[in-house]
Write a structure and sequence with these properties.
The structure holds 2 protein chains of 2 kinds.
Chain A (H helix, E strand, L loop, with lengths): L1 E5 L3 H13 L3 E5 L2 H11 L3 E4 L8 H9 L9 E5 L3 H5 L7 E4 L4 H13 L2
Parallel strand pairs in A: 1-2, 1-3, 3-4, 4-5
Helix pairs in contact in A: 2-3
Chain B lengths: L13 E6 L5 H14 L4 E5 L5 H8 L14 E5 L1 H7 L1 H15 L3 E5 L1 H7 L3 H17 L3 E6 L8 H5 L2 E10 L2 E11 L8 E7 L2 E5 L2 H4 L34 E7 L4 H10 L7 E5 L4 H10 L5 H6 L2 E5 L7 H15 L3 E5 L1 H6 L7 H14 L3 E8 L12 H6 L2 E10 L2 E10 L10 E6 L2 E7 L3 E2 L7 E2 L3
Parallel strand pairs in B: 1-5, 1-6, 2-3, 2-4, 4-5, 10-14, 10-15, 11-12, 11-13, 13-14
Antiparallel strand pairs in B: 6-7, 7-8, 8-9, 15-16, 16-17, 17-18, 19-20
Helix pairs in contact in B: 3-4, 4-6
Classes of the chains: A alpha/beta, B alpha/beta.
């Protein structure tokens, strides 16, 4: 499965990428939302995993851009966030799942697998 | 903090905050960030550290200013670590410019300038980086704070670029940690130089500007009222021309047990709603003081109940000298206090880290009290119960005080008696003869001239035989 990860924090991004790759996924990672959007358009991923607070484009703005993009609009989006979980949960139209930080990596892997199985 | 900076940060200016890890830079940066957000402005908190934002939020969550609701709304925490690593300093500058504009940010806190330095290949790179970040920010009226744990020298390129440099020091003096802030440079504002103590509490950082710098002149015009203030001690006012000069500071010296606290209770028993009193003490708890007053037949409780008297107790533990002074001045301002009993000056002196500034400190304090029209009686404990020498506090401090009264026990003819001597009254004639005092039904009272004897002031008197 192809996954685009958007996360500005190096440690978290690194851990996410390695864990997802270990689980057999192909991962493209970006340090902010704008780069992630670019990667998504290029690779047409099966799932997008994004942080909320990021430079240039937040996770919320990224999700809005994805939903407005004809080719990407149905891509499942998983938001992982420290403090903005509540903001994101109000936007069920944008996010398929919202997980709060600090999170358990297994929970992410499980969630990614679930999102993939959706029709 | 605003006082130290001579009115706060200037919009569009840039500052460096430097200090070792643990000095409180990150707390300060976040505190300012949330204060800015609370004022309805937007803030970018940029990190270059490997530590995750989540851990940062966890440690900040115990602080009162931290408001989770603002995260991602008015305060955005952004990591540019990856951008710096992959694309270099100029990419970071670019990103900051775009992001500042996009968010309409009024403040950028850049945490981790040291990392940017490590990354820079030459000194020139850092200088260019700082210059570019700040000039872009200034262009849109955005203030920048660079936080760094590096020990930047005065002539470092970063210093020459920014408008202000604030140093946070955390050092050991004896067994205690002393935190001091120093503004090394400040363009465009009348800042207070030198070291200012600060502390880190759950409310974040509180800076206590050096009193003598903050109040180099009293905050108000001197009150011209010269009507003396009654001391509350029977017989004393007659010796000093009708009472203590209004707005004067009296130093009451005497060894332990001589009746200094009793003097204070007598003095404060005279307070009223028109002339509110304050007991600012380090020794007796309010409860013990009340018991003592009652035992002396003086009623302080009614005054406390009516609001005419406040008893502020600061245990003699680790105190910050300037903090004590601000607490004192705040308590005075809050209730328009006119009668102050300070027990004691010696305890304030103990709170000082640097004794060389005590003269200036007490000068600023007594000037301010005088200007506020506060008549002050402060105590000073003499070390020896009986001594061949009488040691007043540091002579320079004594000279700042208007009046000097000594009180002590005297052994004479196998008896102990109390003696009170007025040694100095500013600008007024006074009766200098030693007086015998007793602690009777209404506290301290003067009974009359002490019997003719020599050595009274030493505590070991010898009657003058005919």
């Amino acid at each position: 499965m192809k996954i685009v990860v958007a996360e500005d924090e190096f440690l978290i991004a690194d851990m996410l990428v390695v864990s997802l790759e270990d689980a057999g996924h192909v991962v493209h990672s970006a340090a902010h939302g704008a780069a992630a959007l670019h990667l998504a358009r290029e690779h047409q991923p099966d799932v997008i995993v994004t942080d909320f607070m990021m430079p240039l484009m937040t996770g919320l703005e990224l999700a809005e851009a994805i939903r407005a993009d004809g080719a990407l609009r149905h891509t499942p989006i998983l938001l992982v966030s420290g403090a903005q979980g509540a903001i994101a949960r109000e936007r069920a139209d944008l996010f398929d799942l919202v997980l709060d930080k600090p999170y358990d990596i297994d929970r992410i892997l499980e969630a990614v697998a679930q999102l993939e199985q959706r029709p | 903090m605003n006082t130290v900076f001579g009115g706060g940060f200037i919009e569009g200016a840039s500052y460096i905050v430097q200090g070792q890890p643990g000095a409180g830079k990150t707390i300060l940066g976040n505190q300012i960030a949330f204060a800015t957000a609370a004022a309805g402005k937007r803030v970018l908190y940029i990190t270059l550290l490997a530590e995750t934002h989540d851990r940062l939020f966890q440690s900040l969550s115990t602080l009162t200013f931290f408001d989770k609701q603002q995260l991602g709304r008015s305060v955005s925490y952004l990591s540019v670590f990856q951008t710096l690593n992959k694309e270099g300093l100029s990419a970071v500058v670019n990103l900051l410019r775009k992001e500042t504009k996009r968010q309409g940010a009024s403040l950028i806190v850049f945490d981790g300038l040291l990392n940017a330095r490590d990354r820079a290949e030459t000194q020139l790179d850092v200088k260019t980086f700082v210059a570019e970040v700040q000039s872009q920010a200034a262009f849109v009226g955005c203030t920048v704070l660079f936080l760094t744990s590096a020990r930047l020298e005065d002539d470092s390129p970063e210093h020459t670029m920014v408008d202000g440099v604030l140093e946070l020091h955390d050092e050991l003096v004896g067994a205690r940690t002393v935190r001091r802030a120093r503004l090394r440079k400040s363009r465009g504002s009348a800042a207070l130089g030198g070291y200012h103590q600060y502390e880190i509490t759950e409310d974040g950082i509180s800076v206590y500007p050096r009193l003598e710098a903050a109040l180099s002149r009293p905050s108000v015009e001197d009150a011209a009222d010269t009507q003396p203030v009654l001391s509350g001690i029977e017989g004393l006012d007659a010796l000093t021309g009708g009472g203590l000069p209004r707005g004067s500071t009296t130093l009451l010296v005497g060894p332990s047990g001589s009746g200094k606290t009793t003097f204070g209770i007598n003095f404060l028993a005279q307070c009223s709603l028109a002339e509110p009193g304050l007991h600012f003490g380090f020794y007796e708890t309010p409860k013990r003081l009340m018991l003592k007053a009652r035992a002396l037949g003086l009623d302080l409780q009614t005054h406390v109940d009516s609001g005419a008297l406040e008893i502020a107790w600061h245990p003699l533990t680790e105190n910050l000298l300037d903090k004590l002074a601000y607490r004192l001045l705040d308590a005075i301002a809050a209730r328009g206090v006119k009668r102050l009993f300070l027990d004691s000056f010696g305890a304030m002196e103990r709170a000082a880290v640097s004794r060389t500034r005590l003269v200036e400190f007490f000068a600023a304090l007594t000037n301010e009290l005088r200007a506020q029209g506060v008549t002050t009686v402060g105590t000073w404990e003499l070390r020896d119960l009986f001594a061949s020498e009488v040691t007043a506090p540091n002579s320079e401090i004594s000279s700042l005080l208007d009046n000097l009264i000594m009180i002590r026990q005297v052994e004479i003819r196998s008896e102990y008696k109390r003696v009170l001597s007025v040694l100095k009254v500013r600008d007024h004639a006074f009766q200098a003869a030693p007086q015998e005092v007793v602690i009777g039904e209404r506290g301290l009272a003067i009974r009359g001239d002490f019997e003719p004897a020599s050595g009274i002031s030493t505590g070991l008197a010898r009657p003058l035989e005919a």
